[in-house]
Predict the structure of NTP pyrophosphohydrolase MazG-like domain-containing protein.
Amino acid sequence: MALMAEELGEISACVTKGKSKQDLAEESADLLILLMGTAISAEFDLNEAFWQKMEKINKRKSKMVNGKIRVSEFKGIDKN
Ligand SMILES: [Mg+2]
């Protein structure tokens, strides 16, 4: 988990410090490698988990938030 947090920090630094797209891609790949390692060591199918989650997301209602489309679960904050 600490390694994933570290990689996330490096991704954040790429964005906040205006680093190159290549740097951002490399740090994103580092995080993906750690996620894949987690799936292997915990013995779950990351590909299957990904598509199950995409199916859930695709069923959510979209909503405009600050001019952007969001599909987050709006539990308890949706006043409509
Ligand atoms: Mg890295």
